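--- STAGE predict ---
source: upstream dedup step, 1 unique chain passed
mode: sequence only
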Amino acid sequence: MAPLKILFACTPFDGHFSPLTGLAVHLINEEHDVRWYAHDYYAEKLKKLQIPHYPFVLAQQINQVDLEVIFPERKKITNIIKKINFDIKHVFVKQGPLYYQDILNIKMNLISIC
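--- STAGE serialize ---
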C-alpha cells in the first residue's frame, strides 16, 4: 500500500485526543504521513510523538481545562444534563463550522505546498 497523508482532528478533550495517539503512532510506523489539527494544549504531546501540529486558527482554543474560564456562565449550571447540553452547543455545534474552515485551509495549504 502506498503511504497515505492522514490528518487527525478531534475535539479538544483528552478523551477524544488520547485514544487516537496510539493509532497515529501505528500509522507513522507504517510510513504514512500523519499530521494533527488540535488545540495548542496538545502541541507539546504532538511534538513528543513527532507529529506535525496544525493549531486551531478560526476555532476557539477551548479544552476541558479552560471551559469555565471561557464560559463563566457554565459554573452556574448544576444539572449535569444541562451542562452537557451547554458543552455540546458551545464546543461542538458552534465551533463545528470553524473547525471545518480551519481544516479546509489546512488542505488548501498542503495542496499548494505539494
